[in-house]
Recover the amino acids of this structure.
DNA sequence: GATGAATGAGGGTTCATTCAT
DNA sequence: TATGAATGAACCCTCATTCAT
């Protein structure tokens, strides 16, 4: 299955607009995402990455310094993408607004960047050895959300949920659309490269989460 | 991280009770689960499996015929385990009972067999090439659940949800506790090999799902 | 192709009449002939020999001391068989009689013991490293025949041929029915395990050789 | 024994004249011929081929894709060489001319390409599994020769021989000089790498065949 | 920049043989 | 005798990387 998503689309766009070196780096990035997300760090081969990028192996090594560095670059780009995307809105203090925005953004990221999302999953599956520096950040960022939710609960604006588990459940449901993309396609009766219609998913997911939090969806 | 779960526990138990060949086969199984679940099929090495099982590579090949066969055996054992575990109760026609039992069984499987669960995840991540025969079964089994849920909805016993998406969301949330075990541990402030206390998770998850379906939890 | 010849036939017979150890040694011999004749010494595997003989590898090694010794035993049994069979009749001094008997015996051996014959061929193909002791014997035995033929020529009882080359040509033509058995079957339109009707071959071959020597066939 | 023949000679020549890649491919070809012809497909090792070609094993695999492909390439090059060489002259309808040319060409091929010739022999000895596509071609080409010979016989221009067996006997006698090269050297009292003087062999062989066909040699 | 070539380690697997039992 | 198991070498091949050019 080729990536029928924003990763490839933006790649294609860049291929047309950028020049030379940039173009190649972009192709390498795409190829690396495809291979690492399918086979994990150990299982991916530089040969496959090179071929997918239309390069020979020595050519690839001209642009990257090592397989590991290429991998970690991608991994950090996921982490950065997430820390940008997965903040609670600062503009609003309304649980319904904040939570539904959060769900939507998380799902958008998964559907727009399934490859990158899956790379993070393979890393976690493999034990998360490269994530040492990430965990404290993630924990802190989670704790902030937990604190906010707990305040809402204390203020009686939300059902009494375990905030940490709530966040995990949202994570699980949204990440699922990236990690289990193949199964989702099968279950929805879609061809492997047919794009998923995300509107109904966003709707269902939001209602589900809000109701689960004791909030009435619109 | 060694498996802090029923897989290892039962393995250890068997190691003490079973004899010779059985013991070794069991050690190989455990080792293979550990390696495949961490690195996927391509990324796992028979050397690592052999060492983890306390064998040399040629010794390993005395007991198994090939890496691929060993892998597929494990994969099928997940699929069989699932088709056993993830049926809706036939005894009950009560949405609340059926759904909360389903959620609990699904979560139990993930927490009791995280390694096997993750092997399935790596397979799906890799494109699910070995799952050709499985999809039709999975689709059919899902459809039966969807039909039942839709009947409940038609009978006004449940909120009007998209049954397929509901099942996916349950899948995502429960599977998360296997695939993202490492992250879950970090977030809950547990040591890597500390067991997860599943009671609160079951409670939260069940309430969450029932409320999300418009059913009042007990 | 299983051997449709005296080797197998006598093997089967022995299997019924001999007991235990003898029977097994016989099965090993047959199996070894089949494997060595197909793949040569290096290419044959003790596993294949053991399986063909209905034994396990350790069982096989209980009866033989090494692959090499088993091979050399067979090789020497060819050499002995040949030194027995391929003498010129001492009873007759008639070129026609002697040569036609020789041709017939040589062909009979090839058709009755194709496996053994082919083992010798694989050995020669491989450089004949194990044949160091054999060559002097063969040379001497050949020289005797050459001397006799030269006498016949000197006496005007035969056309003036190069005796050595004559013997080689006979060797080539008869050995061909063992080494190229597969091709012979194809060319004669026979199924792989169908026996070759040797009468016409003997007839043609004899006439051919006698005419080639300037002798009138009967 | 190194190849004391045109294969090696031309190889050596090319080694001096060709450049880089060509030179290496040539060395690989020579090495592969030497190893496969000695030990057959199963018995030959890529390590030995690599060493003989002055390469390491990974280096070898830079130039070839697999042992099997290398082998089949050589095998097909024999088959092609033969289908070129072993046609009956179209220019002549004279049995004597046609047959003696055929004998000479067949012998030349065997003496010029003993290694390649022997590879075909090892393949036939091993059962000819890779020759499925070749047999029909060979049968057809043989049948054409048989038809011609039978016409000559019908026209009274040749002794009444079994044409198929005649062709086999020619095959056996000529192929013998490749397959049994080692024995031929021993019998003729030549050192292993001393070239065979082919003139007397051609002369004897031709007379022998013509007389065997009831034709008077010149 | 880009290419052909090389390299040493390691991939999965089979080898002939030996050794307890 | 016969079996399950082990062993160390060797099998064919691919790996990530480097180096001339």
């Amino acid at each position: 299955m080729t990536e029928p998503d924003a990763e490839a689309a933006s790649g294609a766009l860049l291929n047309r607009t950028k020049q030379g070196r940039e173009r190649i780096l972009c192709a390498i990035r795409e190829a690396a995402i495809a291979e690492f997300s399918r086979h994990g760090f150990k299982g991916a081969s530089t040969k496959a990455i090179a071929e997918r990028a239309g390069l020979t192996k020595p050519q690839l090594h001209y642009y990257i310094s090592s397989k590991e560095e290429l991998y970690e670059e991608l991994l950090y780009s996921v982490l950065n993408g997430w820390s940008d995307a997965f903040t609670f809105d600062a503009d609003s203090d309304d649980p319904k607004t904040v939570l539904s925005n959060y769900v939507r953004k998380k799902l958008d990221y998964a559907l727009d960047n399934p490859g990158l999302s899956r790379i993070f999953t393979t890393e976690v599956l493999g034990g998360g050895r490269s994530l040492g520096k990430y965990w404290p950040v993630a924990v802190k960022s989670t704790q902030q959300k937990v604190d906010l939710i707990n305040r809402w609960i204390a203020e009686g604006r939300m059902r009494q949920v375990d905030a940490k588990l709530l966040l995990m459940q949202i994570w699980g449901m949204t990440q699922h659309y990236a990690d289990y993309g193949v199964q989702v396609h099968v279950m929805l009766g879609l061809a492997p490269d047919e794009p998923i219609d995300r509107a109904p998913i966003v709707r269902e997911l939001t209602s589900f989460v809000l109701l689960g939090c004791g909030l009435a969806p619109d």
Summary: The mean pLDDT of chain B is 90.
